[in-house]
Structure formats: structure tokens, C-alpha cells
């Protein structure tokens, strides 16, 4: 079997959360370019529709699914709709991650001044969203006796970040622990589950910040490969984890961060 055969996703159905822009968009396009039909989930319907149209231009089917991943019932409806149209979702990419559904808050109070209402937006998407999507996907995958669960946790979930990122870090770390549990649960059904820990990656969410040359220089001083990540860097690893080439890899957290791991 050639490497191209191992990466071939023809006939498989992938659902990518938070796929309306940035890394999620590139993941959707990359999986589609290797033959997967792709459900493009985003809380913004216009963005989801736009990316779904891009996916269809690659010669595969695509469905735009507007929903907040933190809404358990709505995500269940999305999975039911997909199953009725195409069959089981066998690739889930838990990409949605923010300080809540919608634009991220720009300011955070010191942790010792926060209340649970400050924490809820972090937990809603970054942990509850992963639980919701994975819960609905696992039924599809167990029935199909195959599946890939891939969760993006960012380096914050791996090493912990401060300055307003404490609860975000905790939510991402929780998602990583949950994904390892899914690896244990899913193995006997042919389901693997892994995490990808992204470093600073060039997306619309950070473009304004990294336009500041001094800020960008400070950030990159912690990276051995002195550049920001690109959406392709993440999407290429996720393609591998979604494919047959990774069938004996499960329960892992793999950093994609230009060597940041070596400086921590």
C-alpha cells in the first residue's frame, strides 16, 4: 500500500467544529482534498456556508452546520442530520476553541477577582463542546467499528498559561484527559483518540496582536523554529491522524509548535 493509499479518506465522513475560519477551515479543506465528505460546523452560519462551498469545489460533498458546540441538543441534531444524509461520522475534529461562542473577550480580570461567570465562556466551548461532540460521534463510530477523534488543545492545555488564560488552560487540559479516556474506551471498537497541542498559529484571532513587531519578537523568542505556525502545519498532522496511516496511535498529545516544547 502506498503512502497516498494510507492517507486516502474517500468514503469517510468528517465533522470539523469551528471550521468557519483559520485552522478549522484549513483542516476541512485538507481532509476534503484527500476524499472525505466534510461537515463544516461553526457558530457563524455565513462562515460555515462559505467554507462548505469551498469544500464542494474539491469534488466532495459538504454540509454547513451552524451550531454552538456547547449546546448538547443542537449538536445531537447535527449528528442525526448527517447520519440520515451520509451515514456515520467516522472522523471528528474538535477544533472549536475560544473564550466562548463568538468573539473572544479582550480583557480578563486577575484570577483571584474572577467568579464562575468569568470561567463559563472558557469551559463552555473548550471542554463542554468537546464532551458534547465526542459523545454524539462515539455512537456513530462504535456502530461503524471505526473512528478517529482528534482534539485540538493548544499548548495552554499542555503547559498551563497565565495572564487571563488560567481557566482556558484548565479547560484544554480537561479536554486532553477526556480524550485519553476515549482512547481507552474506543480501542476495542476500532476508534482512536488523540490530541494536537498547537503553539502560536497565524489565524484571524491573533493577526492584530502579531502585527506588533515587538510583541511578535517576544513570542517567537520561545520558539526554536522562529516563525508562527500556519494552519497547514496543524491540518497536515490532523490528516495523518484521521487516516489509516495512524491506526496504531492513540491516547497521545502531539505538539505542533516549532520546538516550543524544548524551551519549557
Automatic annotation (TrEMBL):
SUPFAM superfamilies: NAD(P)-binding Rossmann-fold domains. It comes from the Bacteria. InterPro entries: NAD(P)-bd_dom_sf, Sc_DH/Rdtase_CS, SDR, SDR_fam. It holds the Pfam family adh_short_C2. Keywords: Oxidoreductase. The keyword Oxidoreductase applies. One of its GO terms (biological process) is monocarboxylic acid metabolic process. One of its GO terms (molecular function) is oxidoreductase activity. Belongs to the short-chain dehydrogenases/reductases (SDR) family. This is SDR family oxidoreductase. The lineage of its organism: Bacteria, Bacillati, Actinomycetota, Actinomycetes, Propionibacteriales.
Amino acid at each position: 500500500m502506498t503512502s497516498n493509499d494510507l492517507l486516502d479518506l474517500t468514503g469517510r465522513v468528517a465533522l470539523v467544529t469551528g471550521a468557519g475560519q483559520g485552522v478549522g477551515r484549513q483542516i476541512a479543506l485538507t481532509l476534503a482534498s484527500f476524499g472525505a465528505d466534510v461537515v463544516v460546523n461553526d457558530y457563524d452560519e455565513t462562515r460555515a456556508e462559505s467554507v462548505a462551498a469551498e469544500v464542494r469545489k474539491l469534488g466532495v460533498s459538504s454540509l454547513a452546520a451552524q451550531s454552538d458546540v456547547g449546546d448538547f441538543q443542537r449538536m445531537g441534531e447535527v449528528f442525526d442530520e448527517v447520519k440520515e444524509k451520509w451515514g456515520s461520522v467516522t472522523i471528528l475534529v474538535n477544533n472549536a476553541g475560544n473564550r466562548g461562542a463568538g468573539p473572544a473577550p479582550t480583557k480578563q480580570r486577575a484570577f483571584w477577582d474572577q467568579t464562575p461567570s468569568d470561567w463559563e465562556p472558557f469551559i463552555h466551548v473548550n471542554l463542554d463542546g468537546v464532551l458534547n461532540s465526542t459523545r454524539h460521534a462515539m455512537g456513530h463510530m462504535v456502530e461503524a467499528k471505526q473512528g478517529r477523534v482528534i482534539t485540538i488543545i493548544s499548548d495552554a492545555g499542555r503547559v498551563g498559561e497565565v495572564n487571563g488564560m488560567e481557566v482556558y488552560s484548565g479547560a484544554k487540559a480537561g479536554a486532553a484527559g477526556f480524550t485519553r479516556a476515549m482512547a481507552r474506551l474506543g480501542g476495542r471498537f476500532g476508534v482512536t483518540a488523540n490530541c494536537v497541542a498547537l503553539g502560536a498559529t497565524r489565524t484571524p484571532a491573533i493577526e492584530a496582536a502579531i502585527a506588533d513587531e515587538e510583541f511578535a519578537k517576544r513570542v517567537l523568542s520561545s520558539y526554536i523554529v522562529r516563525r508562527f505556525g500556519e494552519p497547514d502545519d496543524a491540518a497536515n498532522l490532523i490528516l495523518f491522524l484521521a487516516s489509516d496511516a495512524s491506526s496504531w496511535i492513540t491516547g497521545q498529545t502531539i505538539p505542533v509548535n516549532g520546538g516550543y516544547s524544548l524551551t519549557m
